[in-house]
């Protein structure tokens, strides 16, 4: 949805019994999303990955940390579908458990970014003046530092573990949400329905939270989905560098790091965790694009 | 136009100020006393006190900031604790390596991205358009360190065509230099090619629907001349200025790509510094990167203003 577009009125369907039913915006978005096969396929992939992460203890064939010196670097087989790593751990089990670290990092860091970025963006856009000027320059400053470099620096200064990696990614992604929310609020502020809410005597906080916020949420939701994709790559990158999930617990990034040393002997160690990252990121990107179209009031 | 440029320049100062404050405060995020961290294994209170004095850590934080930023203005970014070399010297040493990679990556990205974008716009809604969009999305979704590992697996391990890692300067041996940098440049370039493709596609679609293209067609010019000479020339300006903004992506990508291909550039410098807790290097590299990015951003904006006649008045 581009800035400045007012939410379209809910679509009205004349059903057979000739009573009019007004469709809620959520229902309308879901109906539009269902018509997009790519978006639905990516939603299915996301659900499978979420299921893997939640059900890991029950569906993983082996303990992801159990080493077996009799099964070191074994190629994919009936016993080990995706092969084993340098200390004989099952790659499939580690990929399944690795979904936990990746998804947790993706979702938690985006929640952190939204929890900080949306209120600050709302404040900057609604209050304006100095508050806006200072927040906007701060946002510019953070966005001037390349995403991964800032995340690495923060994670390194905070100390290497998954929680700190999530905080580092979340803080790094915050300016994205400040800027987006601010832009949307600025566009919404001059809309007639905001003026109407003001005219009937609503206090500012109520206008900001009850009237402006719900109307600027759709693009924020789209951005959140796309930022999860960025955060999953960022977590994998930090774990690859040893700044995220610590051994022996698996994460896709750290699996790739150890796989790099055995490329000639055990290429499967590198192929499958990378494919898991790729599929997850692709699914969130396609889903984000689909959501954008489905939530856009101008699209049919 | 002057007013617009003046406004952009005026915004630069507070942004750079906040960047410097952010980078400076990174060190203070660290739990514990920086002097203790700098002292490493050394636990002698006299030595720690000496370090505290030497680096001005006994001063209040705002004073420390003023001291630091004062030094930055004179080109003094501090000294690497590990290598005992001025940070600015390290940056001057490593920057050309990353610049070579960045330029090669940009060439890859522009060639692939523009060609794919133009094709996809000209053949809108065809199978070509669909395939290019899917490949572009896949390119954006591929973590570049994994792509790097897969390329090493294919071209170095299996086919043996290219060296898996290392770096040779082009001034030493051009052919070997290209052999060592072609894979990392491709990895970095594809990450941006997808973005450039999307920009090119939308700029081309807009150009193809414009009046001047309709006029060119009405004059009876061949489709090739219309697309390449009339539409593309106009569509490319925003694409190139937007491409300049991808510099940040390039540097982020370089961090891991240089790590994988063992290339001694900017990215490797920052990762090594992070792991050795060499704060002065981390701060220096981040500061130089951010400043370059902000200046490129400004140049891109100015270029856009100059290229767009409607913004010139």
What do you see in this structure?
The complex is a heterodimer of chains A (300) and B (313). Chain A has 300 residues and is mostly helical. Chain A has a domain at 108-300: MetI-like fold. Helix content of chain A is 69%, strand content 1%. In chain A, strands 1-2 form a two-stranded antiparallel sheet. In chain A, strand 1 and strand 2 (21-22) form a beta hairpin. In chain A, helix 2 packs across helix 3. Chain B is mainly α and 313 residues long. Chain B folds into two domains: 16-73, no CATH class; 88-312, MetI-like (MetI-like fold, Orthogonal Bundle), CATH 1.10.3720. Chain B is 78% helix and 0% strand. Chain B has 14 helices and no strands. In chain B, helix 7 packs across helix 11 and helix 12 (266-275) packs antiparallel against helix 13. At the A-B interface, helix 4, helix 5, helix 8 and helix 10 of A face helix 1, helix 6, helix 7, helix 11 and helix 12 of B.
Strand and helix map with partners:
The complex is a heterodimer of chains A (300) and B (313).
Chain A: E1 12-13, E2 21-22, H1 25-34, H2 37-59, H3 91-127, H4 129-144, H5 147-158, H6 162-189, H7 192-199, H8 204-240, H9 252-259, H10 268-295
Helix pairs in contact in A: 1-10, 2-3, 2-10, 3-4, 3-6, 3-8, 3-10, 4-6, 5-6, 6-8, 7-8, 8-9, 8-10, 9-10
Chain B: H1 2-29, H2 34-39, H3 45-54, H4 61-73, H5 87-122, H6 127-141, H7 144-158, H8 174-208, H9 211-218, H10 223-244, H11 247-260, H12 266-275, H13 279-307, H14 309-312
């Amino acid at each position: 949805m581009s800035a400045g577009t007012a939410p379209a009125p809910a679509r009205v369907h004349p059903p057979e019994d000739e009573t009019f039913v007004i469709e809620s915006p959520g229902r309308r978005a879901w109906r539009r999303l269902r018509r997009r096969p790519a978006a639905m396929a990516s939603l299915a992939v996301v659900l499978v990955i979420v299921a893997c992460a939640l059900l890991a203890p029950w569906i993983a064939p082996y303990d992801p940390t159990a080493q077996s010196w009799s099964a070191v670097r074994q190629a994919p087989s009936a016993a080990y579908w995706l092969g084993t790593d340098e200390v004989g751990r099952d790659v499939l089990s580690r990929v399944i458990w690795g979904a936990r670290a990746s998804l947790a990092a993706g979702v938690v860091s985006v929640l952190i970014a939204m929890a900080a970025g949306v209120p600050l963006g709302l404040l900057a856009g609604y209050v304006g003046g100095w508050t806006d000027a200072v927040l906007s320059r701060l946002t510019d400053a953070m966005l001037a530092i390349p995403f991964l470099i800032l995340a690495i620096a923060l994670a390194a200064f905070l100390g290497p573990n998954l929680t700190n990696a999530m905080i580092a990614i979340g803080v790094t992604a915050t300016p994205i949400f400040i800027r987006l929310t601010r832009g949307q609020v600025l566009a919404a502020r001059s809309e007639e329905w905001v003026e109407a809410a003001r005219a009937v005597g609503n206090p500012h906080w109520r206008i900001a939270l009850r009237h402006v916020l719900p109307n600027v949420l759709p693009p924020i939701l789209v951005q959140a989905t796309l930022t999860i994709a960025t955060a999953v790559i960022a977590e994998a990158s930090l774990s690859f560098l040893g700044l995220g999930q610590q051994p022996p617990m698996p994460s896709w990034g750290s699996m790739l790091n150890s796989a790099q040393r055995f490329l000639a002997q055990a290429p499967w160690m590198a192929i499958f965790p990378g494919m898991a990252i790729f599929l997850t990121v692709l699914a969130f990107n396609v889903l984000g694009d689909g959501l954008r179209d489905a939530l856009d009031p101008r699209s049919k | 136009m002057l007013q617009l440029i003046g406004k952009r320049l005026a915004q630069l100062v507070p942004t750079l100020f906040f960047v410097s404050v952010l980078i400076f405060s990174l060190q203070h995020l660290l739990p514990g006393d920086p002097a203790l961290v700098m002292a490493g294994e050394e636990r002698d209170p006299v030595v720690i006190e000496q370090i505290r004095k030497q680096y001005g850590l006994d001063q209040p934080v705002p004073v420390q900031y003023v001291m630091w930023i004062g030094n930055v203005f004179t080109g003094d970014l501090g000294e690497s604790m590990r290598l005992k070399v001025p940070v600015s010297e390290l940056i001057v040493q490593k920057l050309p390596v990353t610049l070579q990679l960045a330029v090669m990556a940009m060439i890859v990205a522009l060639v692939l991205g523009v060609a794919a974008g133009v094709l996809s716009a000209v053949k809108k809604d065809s199978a070509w358009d669909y395939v290019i969009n899917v490949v572009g999305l896949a390119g954006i979704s591929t973590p570049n360190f994994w792509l790097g590992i897969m390329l090493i697996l294919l071209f170095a391990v299996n086919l043996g065509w290219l060296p898996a890692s290392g770096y040779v300067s082009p001034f030493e041996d051009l052919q070997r230099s290209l052999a060592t940098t072609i894979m990392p440049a491709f990895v970095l370039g594809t990450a941006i090619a997808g973005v450039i493709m999307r920009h090119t596609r939308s700029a081309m679609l807009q150009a193809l629907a414009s009046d001047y293209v309709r006029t060119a067609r009405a004059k009876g010019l061949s489709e090739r001349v219309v697309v390449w000479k009339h539409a593309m020339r106009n569509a490319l300006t925003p694409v190139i200025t937007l491409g300049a903004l991808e510099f940040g992506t390039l540097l982020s990508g370089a961090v891991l790509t240089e790590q994988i291909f063992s290339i001694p550039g900017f990215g490797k410098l920052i990762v090594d510094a992070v792991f050795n807790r060499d704060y002065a290097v981390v701060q220096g590299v981040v500061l130089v990167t951010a400043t370059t990015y902000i200046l490129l951003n400004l140049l891109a904006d100015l270029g856009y203003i100059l290229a767009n006649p409607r913004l010139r008045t």
